[in-house]
Amino acid sequence: xxxxxxxxxxxxxMPKELESGSHESPDxxxxxxxxxxxxxxxxxxxxxxxxxxxxEPMGDGKKIISLADNNILLWDLxxxxxxxxxxxxxxxxxxxxxxxTSGRWSPHHNCTQIATANDTTxxxxxxxxxxxxxxxxxxxxQLVRDxxxxxxxQYYLASCGDDCKVKFWDTRNVTEPVKTLEEHSHWVWNVRxxxxxxxxxxxxxxxxxxILSNMVSISSEPFGHMVDDDELSDQEDQHQEEK
Length: 243
Fold this sequence. Notes:
This protein is mostly beta strands. Helices cover 4% and strands 41% of the residues. The chain contains 1 helix and 17 strands. WD repeats lie at residues 137-173.
């Protein structure tokens, strides 16, 4: 727009044929191309470029939070999601050009908390008051790229960034990370917990590698829940080798 790159957000409805439970294969070449239905734009003209949008994890699909430059915007999708109303907002305060890079909505605490990343800092916010509830200054030596909450263990949060590290935090005590991974040799762009087995952490980096880490010691099942190779019987061992 006017020779400037703008980053915006919108809500779309997927075709009914593609909803879960549908028996049709989405990659069936004979099926007609489906179009998405535009429901509404999240109007951010007053707030700047969108960094990310997040659905309320356990909600009814009516609440979305977007991060635009230094603003946190809570949207209420009304009238069958065809209209987005800005219900509350908060702004980062401080010196310089403060901008969010990413955020994550916590599935715990009745979905009343989100975590955001800006520069080297990770912050926690209460969505009811839009006030800050914790702050991890210099969480990483360089820009924080991504965050994810442990789906089964409240207070636990993973972060990654341009210092090539993945760090795990207990938000009740943010002075030191619980654990740090240094497997990547370049910026770490994404970190995700496995939703069923929270000891499994997937990270992607611009060192061109995707790494799956098994973090049993800080998981909700500290004794491990997955079958170890040692536990396989000899016969199964042999079968594995043949494979």
